[in-house]
Amino acid sequence: MRNRHQDILDIFQYAFRVSRVEQAIEERICFSGEVMELDGFHYNLSQFDRCVLIAMGKAAAPMTTSFLARSGEASRRFEGVIVAPDPVEVPSRKFVAFQGGHPSPNAGSLQAAEEILRVLSSLTERDFVIFLISGGGSSMVEKFLAADTSLEAIAATHKALVESGAPITVINAVRKHLSAVKGGRLAAAAAPAQQLTIAVSDVPAGRLDALASGPTTPDDTTLEDVYDAVAAYGLMDRMPAQITAQLSAHSLKETPKRGDAMFSRSRWSILLDSSSLEAAAGKRAAELGWQVSIDNACDDWPADKAAVYLVDRVRELRRMGQRVCLLSSGEVTVTVPHGVSGSGGRNQQFVLEAARILVGEEITVLSVGSDGVDGNSPAAGGVSDETTVERAARIGGSVEQALAAYDSYPLLQKLNDAIITGRTGNNLRDLRVLLAP
Which domain holds residue 91? Predict the structure, then answer.
């Protein structure tokens, strides 16, 4: 007889397994000789002088490998740059690879940005560039518009934004306006070449300009959004003096917008997103006999508020007398106080927030990051249920203390409830699963 714990692990593992970059590329991208087809658009590679591939983000390595394998003999036409969180073996001497930093930029991030800008600036209208973009690209490829900005200041700015509690769209609005490679500025560098962006998205639906801070897309955010965010999230107290001086002086430049000529030869295609992950999880849950419901209303909510909301929702659904599986994709936020250095992330914080309100109820909760990394911990996420608080007390731990210290991982690890997958080579936001028999 299977139990809830087995089922909830099965559901997320199946979703991760079938929502793979390799499978999506096989299904969506077709080559006939040197003619590539995607979403009804055809590109004859023989018509271009140069074919350039720029891959960045957590899925950069599998996206590049799968794309080149799919292209067959046409792969010999491509040159380019690959930027990933781990070392990458380049497919040929025509490629160069960098190990970018995440969640904060490193020296490789700056070197990658310089090389990408160098390659793109040499393109003409007779060239074709394909961007393979996935989540994490914001930190893995970075160069600020102010050329004298140090790596330390850039990394501190990224850290301050990530820990501010702001939703990803707000964080990226600020990043875009500081950066020379975000908010459509790579598209500007590549113009007038033919451009195609193929995305594995970890941002809300309809917000492709937020993916990796939108390096190749028109930017829907404005300088006004940036200054509003600075005020709303207290960023002037968090960021380096060099950056706050620019903000105080209102000296930032606006990003490229819809209708700008630089986008006249650009197309964008979403290969996978969080709905892909959610659909796969729902399929497996139904096969296991659970009645599936989806609720993404708490996307970008604080973790504690999202936990209360989703537990209340699953309670409502259970009153209908069915075995309920509630799915929720997207991300929750955690505002880490300045100077706090616990080990964990938003997914593990969320499951412990849920554990506090599950005592005495038969509900199991899982939250996991599809990239395999949750915050600054080795885990992808965690799982909790109505026994978590009691089991923690039996081993001398405390859910309340772990939450207060933003130190969720050590407790979940001791309870054998931390979920460790390693880096998945994918990034489709987070998946939350709640089961109530």
Answer: 33-272
What DSSP letter does each residue of 220-235 carry, written as one string? ---HHHHHHHHHHTTG
Percent of the chain whose pLDDT exceeds 70: 100
Place of tokens 């419901």: 293
**Hey, how many other C-beta atoms are within 10 angstroms of the C-beta on 236?**
12
Last residue of a domain, one of 228, 250, 272: 272
- Residue 278's alpha-carbon distances to 299, 329, 422, 426, in angstroms, are 14, 7, 20, 14
Distance of CA 290 to the CA centre of its chain: 28
**d(C-alpha 387, C-alpha 385), whole Å:** 5
404: domain CATH number is 3.40.1480.10
Q: In 39-87, at which residue ranges do the beta strands (DSSP E only) sit?
A: 41-44, 51-56, 78-84
212 near 179, Cβ under 8 Å?
no
pLDDT tens, 91-145? 999 999 999 998 899 999 999 999 999 999 999 999 999 999 999 999 999 999 9
Q: Which of 282, 251, 21 shows the shortest CA–CA distance to 133?
A: 21
Place of tokens 């934004």: 161
Q: What share of the chain is helix, strand, coil (3-state, %, to 5)?
A: 40, 20, 40
Look at the chain and report how many structural domains it folds into. Answer: 2
Mutual orientation of helices 241-249 and 151-162 as an angle, nearest 10°? 70
Q: Are residues 205 and 75 in the same domain?
A: yes
